[in-house]
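Re: duplicated header lines in exported structure tokens

Our pipeline writes sequence and tokens for each protein into one text file. With two proteins the header for the second block appears twice in some exports. Here is an export where it did not happen, for reference. First protein block:
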Amino acid sequence: MRVMKWSMIALAVAAGTSQLAVASSQDESKGFIEDSTLNVKTRLLYFSRDPRNTETPAFGLPKRSEETGLGFLGTFESGFTQGTVGFGVDAIGMLGIKLDGGRGTRGTGLFPTSSDPATSGDQHSQDDYSKGGAAAKFRISDTVLKVGDQFTALPVFATDDSRLLPEIAQGALITSNEIKGLTLHAGRFTSLTGQADTYRDSLHLKKADVIGGVYAITDTLSTSLYYSKVEDYWRKYYGNVNWSLPLSDKQGLVFDFNIYDTKSTGSAEYLAYDDDKLDNTAFSLSAAYNIGAHTFTIAHQRVTGDGDYGYGVDGGGTVFLANSVARSDFNAEDERSWQARYDLNFAEYGIPGLTFMTRYVRGTGANVEGTNNGKEWERDIDVKYVLQEGPAKDLSFRVRQATYRSADGVYYGSPSLDELRLIVEYPLSIL
């Protein structure tokens, strides 16, 4: 398996050697200040989680969790100095403010929690929190080395942005685009700050090494291959094939295949799997049919081997599987799941910026405590509108509703519940 993957990368490199760009990105650099950007994104988020048919919610949380927060994410990205080796600096600053939510409704994951000595250590959400960081970057030709605090979106190391403020990774990442159609990555990360945390290494990451890349074979066919090793957790292989097949001007098919092979390494001391070792394969295959404003998608996902598909210490977004949805990932040991999804783009009906999505996912055969045929299902609805013009251009309003049910507690013992998120975002470009 490993030989095949590295052979494919070698073939991709060989195929692209005749496609080297004449002028590189560094050759076209205008300077440190001239190419700088400064952006601030504001996010207002209401989050409600209501467990059903249970008096004891999982993880010791209240019967109902309900909180509202206002988040600010500022990012400064300098340009690169001119010359053979370009130098630049990126900076991140974040602030989260609690607008509503008390001790009895904590547990949404929007805010850090603290113990109150006056109430015998009773947990409550903090009123505000902040975090940030910076990174130095260097560029030669079309290859960039970034060292320091950063966001990542690799299938084997991806920071999560599903709450008020995103995760931040600390480490070094090389991104190379020297060959047309081929993007290569190699990096080492040594800590990870959680979404609702303010201190480094809150997710207990010791070291994660990653390598891999994406190759666009044609305009409609691409493949990805990645490897990672997280010290005292696991090593992972990841593969992807994505194929778009146009049928006409307004019709087309898209096929997407993802696969992870995960195996425990080292002491696996932080694994929350009752000390069981992981040795499994998780894959998903989806097919989407688009006709005008409508997109219909079906997907199948399966986990085989020992243990659930594990992730988190390598980033809360490191689950590039079709049935990883709003609440559940359908990633339990031996679980098989199917998804049916429908998307509607109202631009075809004269309302650009308005989109609608609904999906239903059902999983069976999950090997969880108490049963080897655990079942779960989830139904999601997502409506979003983005202003297309005017002084508030790009201001977006979003409603996300999830209904999750599992009498077997498949999702790490989680009860059946309803979730509602109301999200208002406004990205502002200052430079």
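Second protein block, exported in the same file:
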Amino acid sequence: MNATNTTEYTLALGSQAKVASALMARAPAATKNVALRALARLLRENTAALQVDNAKDIERAIANGLAAPMVDRLKLTPKVLETCAEGCEQLAAMADVIGEIIGMKQQPSGIRVGQMRVPIGVFGMIFESRPNVTIEAASLSIKSGNACILRGGSEAIDSNKALARLVQQALTESGLPADAVQLVQTTDREVVGQLIAMPQFVDVIIPRGGKGLIERISRDAKVPVIKHLDGNCHTYVDDPCDIAMAVKVADNAKTNKYSPCNATEGLLVARGVAAAFLPRIGAVYAAKGVEMRCDPEALAILTSNLPLAPVDIAQIAPNSGAKLVPATEQDWYEEYLAPIVSVKVVAGVDEAIAHINQYSSHHTDAILTTNHVHAQRFLREVDSASVMVNASTRFADGFEYGLGAEIGISTDKFHARGPVGIEGLTSLKYVVLGEGEVRG
């Protein structure tokens, strides 16, 4: 596709999406829910056919030497497709927020002023790897009354095309415009550059993928971007705390899964509990092969006590051993996405808050404590999109937050922050109700 054709193609996508967005904005909730349930049915009916298309992507990925974890992300197994179908049905069962009016108040002039929730309009989503994101984005777009333009990675092009056909079939069956969800049909990267520079058609861009992709989109986009670059999340173990609970939560926050952006990458421990806590969590991490990059104080405690730490023998892997490494300044900034964690002993809650606000990516940070005052200070003063008390950072997820699904996580402060669900794809406009009032 040459430059002229690319521009014409992308402008056509934008124009069609703009027209469709007006129709979606006024679509009844019942009609949108019919489309979502139809999509769930089509996903189940076409599971075998979808796997045929998916196999083409997997075969090509393996031939191109794509890393095994990336190949795994491409797979549309029956379980993955059933999860997608269930997600559509869950969204259909949720209350419709479009058109709701909040905060209506009578003013001294006699007018009543409130705010109405409305769709954003058209969003563009650029994502890599997982083809199931096509369904997540499409279903959220339908429920929120928006139109969207989706551009998946070239490694999943056959799977994404097959899924997009089902989405458009569900829209058509329910009487909604097929152009409400459009998939970019070419792998030409020029389309991305065009898509993020069309403010006349696209209201917001949502990149979902590696840091390089998100940095490029954030740098070059001429429309607002909802994004997060890093997930450098922290768990702070306070003095006082329940040591057994802290071990359980800090273990889950790091080792439940290493690759998500909500996994804990930095462990901060108050000096008053360090001698009791660090050997126990150190033994758990060592048993699971987690490398600990420690400040001098944490390193000294772990080195001298780790062999004596109590640990459930069932957790010990063959040939496992403590991997203790002195931390560098850069470690406090790192998002490892791997079995590595930075460990630092701090004086208390003041130093923990200061460390997090300096080094974190403002994604998700947690305090484990039995001190209510410390917990409240942490919630107020840590400047992150999600702040938790006595819970694993792994809960920072749209589904776990009861949003039905998420289109991504935002560490920006405007307009969405944290997991972005239906409400994150809407805006508020003021509505004024009067009975002939005039301003004096």
